[in-house]
Amino acid sequence: MNNLSTMMREIEGYLTPAIIDSAQRCSQRLLAALPDSENPANNRVLLAYGGGKDSSYMVAYVRYIQGLIWQQHGSTFQLRISTNRHAAMNSSVMENIDRVYRALQIHNDDFTECLVTDGLQIRHFDRHLPMPDSVRQQNRNDVLMNGHRFRADARSTFCNACNLSMVNSFGLAAHFEGGVDVIITGDSPQEQTAYLAWARHLSRLFNAPVADKSRGFSGFLQTLDGVAERYFADIYGADQVTPAHRITWQLERDPLFFNIYQDTAYEAGAHWALLTEFMHFRFDELMFSFSESDCGNPTLMAHIRGLRAETLMQRSYAEGIREYVRFALGLMEQKDFPPQLIAEMAARYQDDAAIDRARQRAAEFAEQAFGLNEAQLVCMIYSPFIAQGHQLNAWLKQLNEAPDEQSIRALLRGDSDDVLLAQQLEQLSGLTVAQLRQCWRSAQVSSLLDGTRGDALSRVLRFDPHKAVIQVNNGALQDIVTEVISGR
Asked: Domain extents for the chain?
């Protein structure tokens, strides 16, 4: 156990007396909660690690607790750390994770294992582990199909499928090679209650079966599996729901939950030296995007807002960007980001020249992460194929060389098999003919402002808390209009 011994000596120089005291109390609570508290090594504990600043601190805190129990009892629990990857996490996230693991002496430690889930594949961590092409393609499809259905609403486009994938990764990691006894969470009791309410709310929206409350975590996963099956059937069509869209819920054993929220604070400013000096966490220019530090999608959310203003609203790209920046900086303040990080993010969009640079950076990231070009993102903003082409004419009008509208309608109705037109539409939208026809058959999702309850997807959109209602100028209508803005 030299790894733990060395780590304990080094990390304590970065911990305040208050954190050390709280960790000692927390270690006793955790030891008492383990199914076999007399033999700590007989217990396996799962911790999810996204690779961002807050989860990096949580890994350090739990690792320190693991060391405290070892110091006091000569043995400690088995710690399983699992990271769920997606296309919007670049290599810098894996490099940050690797630096954190090295600082905490986790590599080659007998009491710790580190996993990576890529879709349905789960492997042991390696910072050079390539992401499977199938996962990148699935993420691309999810962005496109959700984006067209929700008319490029930021959260719905990028987060709905990703959130369900994250839940599935919990199930995969909790079931892997013998399962786990305990899952550690840093969520507040209110957040945990909200998650349960969210799962039950979604199950009602989609008329999905709700598992018995006594089923615990596996029951929670089973409920969300029913939600995922119905959600993706609505997005893709019932015959196109893949195993990657489902949620693993038949676990080796049902783990207990242990909450460390009461024991420690997560604000990065409270443990800045631990994060940046001891664990060498680096804020990558793309992965640190607004309120995220391990995902580039908020950069694309801002980019799409700019493109929406420039095309659909006939305003300027910069105006749309500034709307998103005001909204997202407010989210950062709500989430207690250190002032220097908020200032750094604001500086990226401080003037027209900075916005031009950010636009180029976002366009390159959209290509690199999802293989989507600007024309395909603009197409998603118009969502021209939804509801039998409700916005088709408006989209065609802004194209330089537009295909014939009636020919498109015939193709998507199934009255034509024009191969050249199909290829042209795929190039313009990123969607296959089968996906275009699914969009054609799908209903328009109504927004928060429509005043009607609508279908399940419309109510999912209204239930999302990370949004605001704003007044903007619509150049196309020559009027001030009310819009909903969402993001991260």
From this structure: 2-278, 297-486
